[in-house]
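Quick check before the chapter quiz. The format below is the same one you will see on the exam, so make sure you can read both the input and the output lines.
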Amino acid sequence: MSEVLVLVEHADGEVKKVTYELLTAARQLGEPSAVVVGAPGTAAKLREALASYGAAKAFVLSYTEAMREELKGTGVTAAALCPGPVYTGFLEAEGISDAESEKALPKFLWQHADAVAKIAVDGMASGKGVIVPGLANRVATVINHLTPRRLLLPMVARNHPGLKKP
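Here is the expected output.
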């Protein structure tokens, strides 16, 4: 694989447009290429309603999985990056300190951006379609999928630092 094009954040619902542009560039490389699409995190419209936040994440995952299937045989592949909480500085830019963030999500779940980027590149190189860095985040993902929404959503709304009322 000669190039990895990484889409980390999505501006105002433009994920399809930006992804299309990245796929066009990847195809023009003329060699095997990859596009990693990161499910939106806290940086994009941090204070949006919980419904929009969760829906955007679900859309990006579903969209990337479908795109991966459609790209078979083209020399280009795609993967969804679901990194969990990452130290990026985005939260501080939104006025949320690391200490406040770690109250909402345990410190052991948090990862550094450089480690997540390496895991994403390694995951693409090994052919993964969904990349969830870190054992703790993979376990949390399974628990999230198994927990009934009627129990999970109130807990997320209560603890997410970007959803707390000022």
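If your answer matched, good. The CA atoms of residues 2 and 31 lie 7 Å apart.
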